Every structure is written in structure tokens, then in C-alpha cells.
Amino acid sequence: MLVAMKNPVKQADSETETTVAPDDRSPEQLATPASEPPHTPLEAQSDSPWLPLKNPVFRTFWLASLVSNLGTWMHEIGAGWLMTQLDASPQMVSAVRTSMALPIMLLAIPAGVLADRMDRRKLLIGTQLMLLCVTGTLAWLTAMGWITAWGLLGLTFLIGLGLTLHVPTWQASVPEWVPRSQLSRAVALGSISFNLARGVGPALAGLLVAWLGSWIAFSFNAASFAAVIIALLVWKRDRVESSRGQSFQQSLFEGLHYAFSCVAMRHVLLRLLFFVAPASALWGLLPLIVKQRLDWGADGFGVLVACIGGGAIIGARLMPELHRWLGADKAVTMAMTLFAIGMTLMSVTTDRTINVVATLIMGMGWMITLTSLNTAAQLSLPDRLRARGMSCYLTMMAFSMATGSLLWGMLADGTSIATAQKIAATTVLVTAAIGLKLSIISTPEPS
């Protein structure tokens, strides 16, 4: 049974609201306030990766997030496969992911400002209720046989709108659930939750969609939001921070100025663009790869996405050692190279076994790259700018995913799926090499 949870992270102003005035400090000074210890580099954190789970607040939210992520991945399978039945053109199939990413790309930064100005708990509850209603509507329309291709895209856009408000608010709340010294491990555990769900959700969805139809995946996703709502209802925040001493516009520009003035954060955003834009070919084209190149059904789609999740779990286990061995910058380059190798394997053969191995490899590369970049972004951000800074991160990721998926779909339509995959893999290799010039480490490495 869930009980009311008090935040174990000691706050300076318990049960009070702090109004923050504009700050003229440099991004580097903002990132390391005098009241906080210096950041620990990614490579230097050697404690158990599971340490944050000893924290009851974080553990509750981690478990709730795991259930929600399971629903999200089941939804991904259901939506992608449903579009292949409604309209199997590469552009329309890839547009499913684009329609979800588009509102994040356009509105994540204003959403981050709201998250830094409002009670994050109330904002999260509101977004979860919205997502429950929209996905429930999608499940009902699909079950009744009334859904159309454009209707699917429209409701997917609304889901993306809810996620636009939810994700930066959720990520900005993580430092309230764990001590700062455990932040990078908490971020990594969040990625593990996401990828555990990716390992189980698609396989389960593939079986259920093949048996009952896509509506069952949407129904599970709608129900999964209740787990997060319950966790949020019993969470008792110790404080509420806001930027209400500033206007909305001032808060917006302060966040943008920080994100692009801090060298480490700017490099994170560039490397995110360099990876996600070409790597989005995997997600935009995977339903077509399964259906047209591999002649596999919804169960096969679930198997390959589950393999990506399995590879991501392996990557999460190997990532700390890889960071200690190579450092975060070179680890990201190696992970991008792994992803490109997997993409190349998929492009040259229709053998299902080799494609399974390829997706495992790509899952490892995807996990290590994005978790490293996400952690580096979190460590470069001061708490009071965290939602705005992470909204810049999400905007860049959504922009890269939306435009990339659409462009790879158009290229596959004009040439072939295999050709688009080969070009995407080559692009990942080139940008991996360029990224070596862009360090994501926000503090000097220990001697």
C-alpha cells in the first residue's frame, strides 16, 4: 500500500514557497551554487547504480514510471502497427512518430517555464489525467472500428502535447527525490525503467495486438497513467520553487540564455542533434522493415522492439565501466558507432536472426548515448533552471526525431528502405567522429 511520502532530500525552505529574482551570475556559476558541492564527473561516480532505489520516494516514482513506460511501449507498437493497416505508405507510418514529437518540438520550452513557475506536483497530476482521457478515447474509437489514419495522427498529436507538459516537469522533479550526489544514478535508473518496459512491453503488445487488435494496447496505456497519478497524490512536497518574481518572458529568455551559454550544455544539445536525427530512421522505418522487408507480423514487430529494449538493458549495465574506461565523451562516440553497425546489418540482410542481433546492438548504442547525454545535461543545470534547461534538451530531441523520421520516410519512399538505412548509418558514423570535438563534461576530470 502506498503511504504519504515525505521528501527525504533536506530542503532549505520546508513547506514554503521561494520567489526567485533574476540572477546575473554566469551559466557556470549558476550550475554550481555556493550552497552545493561541485558536480561529480560522470566517470567518477562509482557507488552502486541501484543506490537511489533505497530512497522510498524515488522507489515509488520509479515503480510507477515503470508501469507507465510499459503502457507507453505497448502504445507505440499498437499505433505503429495500426497505421500500417490504415495507410501503409512510408510517409504516413513515419508520421505517427512525427505527430507525437511535433508538439514537444514546438512547445517544450514554454512548458519548461511553466514547470519552473508552478507547483510541479499539480502540473504532473493534470497532465496524467489529460493523457488518460486522450488514450482512453483512442482505445474506444479503435475498438469500435471508427479510427482513421488522420484521426490516429490527431490523437497522437494530443498525446504528444500532454507529454510536452509532463516530461520536463518530471525530469525537473527528480532532484527532489534523491540527494544531488545520486542524481546521475537516478537518471540512469530512469533510463533502465524505460528500457525494461521496452524489453517487455513490445513483446506483450505484439502478442495482444495480433490476438485482439491495437485497441488493447491503447487501453493498457490509458490504465497505466493511474499508477503515476496515485504516486503523485500521496507525494508530499517539502517545498515549491518558482520564478514568479520574473515575467514569463524573462523566465523564458533566462532559460534559453543559460542553455546556449553553458559550454557543456551547448555541446550536449549539438551531440543530441547529431545522433537522434540520423538514428530516428530506426523508429520511423521499423514497422515497414518488419512488414515489407522481413515479412513479419505484429508479433515480429514486438520481438524487434523488445530486442532493442534488451540491448538497452545490457548497455545500462555496461555504461559505468565504459565511462570509467573511456570517459563520457569517447563512450558516446563508441555507442554511436555501435548503433551505426547495427543499422548497417539491418540494411544488408532480411535474415530475421541477424536483424534480432542488429536490434540488440542498436539498443545498446541508443541507451548509452542518450543516457550519457541526459545525465550530462542534468549535471550542468542548476535546480531552479532545471525544467527550462531540460525542456531545451527535449526540444532538440523532438526536433531531431520529428524531422529525421519524416525525412527518412520520404527518402525510403523515393529510393528504398534499405538505402535509407545505409545512408542513416553512414551519417551516424560521421557525426560520431565530429562529436569528439564537443566535450559534454561540465567539470574537470579528476586527476
UniProtKB/TrEMBL annotation:
A single Gene Ontology molecular function, please? transmembrane transporter activity
- Keyword tags: Cell membrane, Membrane, Transmembrane, Transmembrane helix, Transport
Where it mainly occurs, coarsely classed, is: membrane
Subcellular location per the Swiss-Prot or TrEMBL entry = Cell membrane
Tell me the ranges covered by the Major facilitator superfamily (MFS) profile domain, including all copies.
Answer: 57-447
Q: What residues form the membrane-spanning segments?
A: 61-83, 95-116, 123-141, 147-165, 186-209, 215-235, 268-289, 301-319, 331-348, 354-373, 393-411
Q: Note the PANTHER family from the entry.
A: INTEGRAL MEMBRANE EFFLUX PROTEIN-RELATED, STAPHYLOFERRIN A TRANSPORTER
State what protein this is by name. Enterobactin exporter EntS
